[in-house]
Amino acid sequence: MDKLLIRGGRQLNGTVTVSGAKNAALPELCATLLTPEPVKLLNVPRLQDVATMRKLLGHMGVQTQTHGERGGMSFSAAGPITPEAPYELVKTMRASVLVLGPLLARFGHARVSLPGGCAIGSRPVDQHIKGLTAMGAEIAVEHGYMVAKLAAGRTRLKGARIATDMVTVTGTENFMMAAVLAEGETILENAAQEPEIPDLAEMLIQMGARIEGHGTSRIVIQGVDALHGCTHRVVADRIEAGTFLCAVAAAGGDVVVQHARIEHLEAVVEKLRDAGVTVTKVPDGIRVQSGGAAQLKAQHFRTTEYPGFPTDMQAQFMALNTVAKGSSLVTETIFENRFMHVNELVRLGANIQIDGKVAMVEGVRVLSGATVMATDMRASASLVIAGLVAEGETLVDRIYHLDRGYDQMETKLRGLGADIERVKS
Ligand code: EPZ
Predict the structure, then answer these.
(1) How far apart, in Å, are the Cα atoms of 321 and each of 7, 55, 134, 233, 388?
(2) Distance of CA 41 to the CA centre of its chain
(3) 246 is catalytic
(4) What's the pLDDT at 118?
(5) What is the mean pLDDT of residues 211-215?
(6) Which of 116, 142, 151, 370 gets the most CB atoms within 10 Å of its CB?
(7) Residue owning the nearest CA to atom 20 of ligand 1
(8) Could you tell me if the CB of 172 is within 6 A of ligand 1?
């Protein structure tokens, strides 16, 4: 297993470019199942999860090809498609559940492995099943698989009004991709509003779908008979961008994060400004300036659905709080087990106590480098940020978690002056 070796204490300066958003690319790869015509995606990030999703689509019979320009990828689901997502692939990536909606919409049946638990919580798919059932699917759970087909007498899904028990990002995406080819109108009452949802909707609209309200909590979709191909550019990754903002805030420096959209990160940017970081919008990016964590004031925050503070930024901002002045309360309201980075940060000298959903962080003057272990994607980013400011060497193990969600993180950080290298196992 690869590791990252970081020697802390260096400021970060210069320009870094964020890649396409992982959490937009994953549903958008699945959307290529909705048409027999060619689809081209641009700005697709080079990530392990994207490679896994591409492999899953290939397993089903989708032809895929990468193109020279950065992140170009083309797809054809014209040939025979086997609507199956096997456990070997699904177990490594929960987002595989996103093939369910498109497969039901276009082919009327699917057999998709249940995702199984994951590090940050149980993360069931009961809401996905509830919504698709309302649209005329019959989904049975057999031997660890969701076996889905159209209810007796139906030749296609039907529009429905869907109100899930809680806001679900991939649930909203699954319902959108099912509804675009369903018969009649679908209304998603408490839809997720994360920017990846409108980005997926824009792609579907380019393919001929009729969608309104995307980006709000109420999305209305009129089903059509067929969709055609399109070329779509994946929106910039706001979580990767936010990760770089927190890294510069903690390490100190002056960086332009290119292609980042400040309007997608308002909750995080406000907290950084309250902490004492200078964050400004520049043409096609965000500029971040910081004198380093010792000059910053720790910030209380709680994660909520968009446009609130994103759960995917919780670990990274906590790393900043561990070396900022004062104490802070970090409350995680979305997932039940998303504090696994805490023990590893404590190994670096952080002062953190967990009480249920709340972590109490007392800023310390200095962290000291150590060997730590990544436990999930954003936890690994948190440990990298801590390593950038810790005295001495930090070795982050199991960085396959990082590679799932970040496109060449160490190369980008080295380009900003960090002393960081990948140690091949
Ligand atoms: C998406 O996961 C993201 N993944 C996650 O990003 C992100 O943390 C999460 O949304 C919340 O913003 C992708 O987009 C691929 P949810 P998702 O359904 O859709 C519960 C990362 O780091 N729930 O919005 O799986 C669930 O357990 C990843 O990039 C049910 O109970 O999350 C959670 O507590 C991590 N039943 C809450 O809802 C369901 O059927 C929100 O989950 C669905 C969800």
Answers:
(1) 20, 39, 44, 35, 14
(2) 17
(3) no
(4) 63
(5) 98
(6) 370
(7) 123
(8) no
Q: DSSP letters along 213-252, please?
A: -BTBS-EEEE--S-----EEEPPB-HHHHHHHHHHHHHH-
CB proximity list for 88: less than 8 A, separation 6 or greater = none
**Cβ(47) – ligand 1 distance below 6 Å:** no
* Ligand 1 atom closest to the CA of 305, numbered from 1: 12
Rounded CA separation 280/335 (Å): 31
State the distance from the centre of ligand 1 to the C-alpha of 378, rounded, in angstroms: 13
Q: What percent of the chain has pLDDT over 90?
A: 93
pLDDT tens track for 282-320: 999 999 999 999 899 999 999 999 999 999 999 999 999
Taking the centre of ligand 1 as the mean of its atom positions, its distance from the CA of residue 368, in whole angstroms, is: 33
| pLDDT for residue 116 is more than 70 | no
Q: Is the CB of 401 under 6 A from ligand 1?
A: no
The predicted model gives 268-276 an average pLDDT of 98
| % of the chain exceeding 70 in pLDDT | 98
Above 70 in pLDDT, residue 117?
A: no
Atom nearest to 311 CA in ligand 1? 8
**Contact, 237 vs 45, CB < 8 A?**
yes
Residue 168 Cβ contacting ligand 1 at under 6 Å? yes
Residue type (1 letter), 63: Q
Distances (CA, A) of 156 to 87, 126, 181, 355, 372: 26, 22, 8, 48, 51
Residue 277 above 90 pLDDT?
yes
Which atom of ligand 1 is closest in space to residue 170's alpha carbon? 19
Q: Which residue's alpha carbon is at the smallest distance from atom 27 of ligand 1?
A: 123
Residue 126 CB–ligand 1 contact under 6 Å: yes
Lowest mean pLDDT among 14-23, 88-97, 188-197: 88-97
- Whole-number Cα distances in Å, 118 to 26, 104, 337, 424: 17, 25, 10, 26
Compute, in degrees rounded to 10, the torsion defined by CA atoms 327, 294, 17, 207. Answer: 10
The response to whether residue 377 sits with its C-beta less than 6 Å from ligand 1 reads yes
Q: Which atom of ligand 1 is nearest to the CA of 129?
A: 40
Read off the pLDDT of residues 57-113 as tens digits, 9 standing for 90 and up. 999 999 999 987 678 999 999 999 999 999 998 888 989 999 999 999 999 999 999
End-to-end CA distance of the chain: 5
Give the length of the chain: 425
